[in-house]
Amino acid sequence: MKNETVKAGMKIGATIGGLVFVVFGIMPGFYFGSYGTLILLQKLMGGTVEPTLFVRAAVVMGIMVGIACAAAISIVGGGLLGTAMGYVVSAPASARGKQAAAEKM
Question: Residue 52 gets which letter from DSSP?
Answer without folding.
Answer: -
